[in-house]
Structure formats: structure tokens, C-alpha cells
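re: that complex we talked abt at group meeting.

here r the seqs, copy pasted straight from the sheet so there may be weird spacing, ignore it
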Amino acid sequence: MSQRLLVSTRKGLFTLADSGSDIWSIDSASFLGDPVTLALADPRSGHLYAALNHGHFGVKLHRKAANGSDWEEIPTPAYPEFPDGREPDRCPMRGIEIPWKLEQIWALAPGGQDQPGRIWCGTIPGGLFKSDDHGDSWTFVRSLWDVPERSKWMGGGYDYPGIHAICVDPRNSSRVAVAISCGGIWETDNDGSTWSLIGNGLRNDYLPPDQAYDPVAQDPHFMVRCPAQPDRFWVQHHNGIFKSSDGAKTFTEIKEAGPSVFGFAVAVHPQDPDTAWFVPGIKDEQRIPVDGKLVVTRTRDGGASFDTLAEGLPQNHAYDLVYRHALAIDASGQRLAFGTTTGNLWTTPNQGDSWTLASSTLPPIASVSYY
Amino acid sequence: MGGFLYIHAIFLYPKAILSPTLADFLQIETHEPIEALPSPPPRIQLLRARPQISRHPLFLIASSAKPSIGKETVPKVCFTSNLRRHVDCPEQNVPGATVAEALEAVFAGRPALRGYILDEQGCLHRHMALLVNGQAVRDRKQFAQPVGEDDEIFVMQALSGG
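got the structure back, here u go
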């Protein structure tokens, strides 16, 4: 079966096809001119989903049915009515009001194999939604919204907190972990009825020392779970790289990883939990490749050591940043692709040993996935 | 000139369209400030500015005489042409004695349009604007401003981004 790539950008959604030798070419463009912030290819149904964030007209969600030729707009997750008389929710750090409205769709994840219509949707400002009919309707997961600790959630790069990663346990579809920037890692083992704050061991260097290990004060930039060994999580955190071997309940910090431990994206090998990839940048605010050299780092021993992969990547005046959803790995664990804010898209057929530029002319890239 | 300045204000100074001084900016003669609108509202004179505005693709300006449905108030509602890229929204006369009633009448016939103009709390999207006869509506949720048969409600956007 030929592989394809789904690439969300600031100016549209693009698909690329592989000619068979890791030579990719764009073969379709949708929503041209409009910001596509995230896309999902559901491997169970074959449906494609695209989240748009129009600057003026709000957030929209579109679906292209498997074997369909056209995109259709589907209902957008909606926050509940703000209760009369309630004091506004406010950011604990800056005091700004946290609105009860959809600001951005920041995570889309299929449910388990036993939940064919289930789609999870994480959003800014921190609301989680689920659908059991392929997105035809959405249910707000009020239980997570109502956890008392939400008063401590706050925005990282965005003004408001948001859920950007949703990891369903392939052994038990009712067990789901979500990562919040900034609000730590939360888990349900009953399909969202109740939630527990997990993620002990995550450390936030920029906080006062007595708060640095507070689980709710953590800023995971992205989180992935190994399908073959679901207790293995990797987190690219604001503060560095963390690994868990107990289902994200506790983490250990990886303090050395090539030129930098800072970044946004992480990918894990689908069969080998000890193999993971990262795209480092300069911490904290600069967020550009160290010394202008774009590299990918890879560990094959659970973080004990890292390879710095540069073959095929620019090593002079490269200022590409890779967002959290823009590093993808295919089901074989051999092929990876990543897109950058500069609009470059690279692929590799050999776990990153060498990279090929698929396009240098795309708009800024928000997400990349294989399908 | 007023139209020229107005168009450039939208691109360069998006917030200008939300300003209560818009009428001054447009050199439009208004009879009352928006907060003090009596019922029925006064007719705002747009005669000088209207021809220039109507050439800009952001606006659809009503040009025909308004119909009347029995004795109901039937203001005209028009939409930025950019919105038509996403959802069908021709200009239309709808019953409604307030901006809110007129909008609800529009949404009743075109439910998909609501989410493009209002958020789930019923507030106008942050970068959208409503104008009644060229005057910005400052209330972004209740929309209680009365409208009459001669009135035109514009749903428009403040262009921004890159």
C-alpha cells in the first residue's frame, strides 16, 4: 500500500504521495489560504479530519470520508454555556480571564479499536471533547474541566492552557492520558468519568524551587505512548526530555541529548519503546536550531545515549522550528517526516540516518502525519 | 476620500472599525452617539461615504428599497463577501425589532451561519464587527439595539494576519 502524508499549514492542507523511493510530491491542496491547525487520518475508518482556525470566523472542523472526494464541515466542539453568577476563570499567573469558548483544536486522536466512531478532541483553553459518531456530535468532558486543579492551569505559548496530546491505551480504551500545557498530565481509567493527576518526576526549571516538581505546574510540550509497550511514554517538556515506564505515573529526566534537550516534538518507534526522536532548539525563548544547524536527535537505548542526525539537513543558517505535531513516524518505524515553521518538509526512509527535502515552499507547517 | 481612508483603516488599523469615532473617521454625519439611540433610531446619513464603501469587496451595501412583512420591522442584513467563501449568506430582509432579533431570524434560516459570527457563548467573534447603518455596534453579546425598517445591519470582519 502506498503511503501518503497529511500536512497542515497556515495556508491550507496538503497531501503528498510517495513515488515508491521516498520521493514525495504534493498531489492535493485543500482549504487554500486558510489556517489549518491540525489534521487527523483515522486509521480505523479511513476518514480524514481537518481543524481550521479562521482568524475572524472561529474554529471549524471538516471531515473527508474514506473514499469520499469532498470535504464536509462537521459540528465543532462547543463549550457549555457559562453559568450565570459564576466568577470568571482566571489565569493564576497573569489574571487574564479564561474564556469558555473554543479557541483552537489542539489535539485529535482516534479512540480504541473497540470504539469505531470515537474521536477525542483536545482544545485551547483546556476543554476535552469526545465523539462516538466520527465527529457528527461532540460531548464535553465536564469531569476534567471541573477538576479543582484547573484553577492552576495556565497558558504557555498561547494565552490559555490547552490539551495537545491524547494517548489512548491500546490494551484498554477506557484508559486515556492527556497532556496539558501548562497543567501537567492527567489520566482517566474509566473513559473520562474521573481523572487523576499523574506525572510525578516532571520538573519545571523556571518555577520557584519548591514548585518545580508540582505535577500540575508542568509544561509538557508533547507526549507520545509506545503502541507496543503502552506503559512507555516519552515527553518533550519545556524543561527537557522525560521518560516513563509505568504509564506516565512517574518520569525520569534525560539531561543530555545532543545539542539541546529543548524542543516541541517527539516521536516514538511503534514497536521499540527505547527508540525515540526529538528536534532540538535553543531554550527558552529563542527556539531556533543550535548554531543554525538543523538536526534530529535519536535514542535507541531508552535515553542513555543520543545520535545527532544531520545528513541531508541544512547545517548553515537554518532557523527551522518544528512544532509539536509536525514530527511523524509511520507504522513500520522506519520512515519519519517533519515540517517546520519555515515551510520545509523533510522525510527519511531509514529512521533518520539521512533526510530528503520533500518541499521547501510550503507555508509554515503545523502538523504532519502518515496515512 | 472617506472611503479610501476607511478601506485602508481596515487593513492597517483593524481596531479602527470598532471605534466609536468611526463616524468621524468616515466623515459621516450622525445625529446621536450610539449609546443614546432612541427608539426608533435616527437615520444615519451615509450618503457621502456609501458609494466609496460599496466598491470594496468586504462590504455588501443594500441599495434597494426594503420590503415590509405585514407591519413587522424588516431590517436588511448584509455580510462581508469573505464570509461567503465559507457559508452561504446572501443579504436578506428579516423580521426583527432589534439587532439580536434580526440575527436570530437569519440564523433560523441558515443555522450554519451562527458559528461563523457568534461563539458558543453568543458573543460576536473577537475579530468580527457589526454595524448598523455604518455605525459600529459596541455591544458584542446582547445586541439589544433597536432597528427599524430603514436600517441596514452589516456583518463584517476586521482583516488581519499575514
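couple things i noticed - The interface with chain A takes residues 82-83, 86, 112, 115-117, 119-121, 123, 125, 127-128, 157-158, 160-161 of chain B (CB under 8 Å). The longest strand of chain B covers residues 152-157.
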